[in-house]
Fold:
Amino acid sequence: MAQTTAAYRAQVLHAFRDVEDNLSQLRFLGDEAQSEQHAERLASQAETLSLNRYVKGAISYLDVVTAQTTALRIRRANIDLKTRRLQSSVGLVKALGGAGKPPRAPQLKAS
Structure:
């Protein structure tokens, strides 16, 4: 009986830890997402400005490519961050007990 209680207690503590880990990760990734979105907006503006400057002959195309590369790198980082947030959300659902098979519909007995 004591061994069963200890095992149950360990499972409960593990479940609480999983929930807290996923909640804190979601909080952290949410803060990071705000920074990444801001960086993406700035990179997009820099990309547009560099292209406009190139069209007007003020800079070389290498500067445009550099701005495009930077913007693409930031966009990809933002997509990676969104993926990590979704994975953390799934982890939270699993930690809260939502990872099992869907419940079966009750069988109706024929009268």
Observations:
- The mean pLDDT is 89.
- Residues 10-95 form one domain.
- Helices lie at 2-55, 61-95.
- The two ends are 43 Å apart (CA to CA).
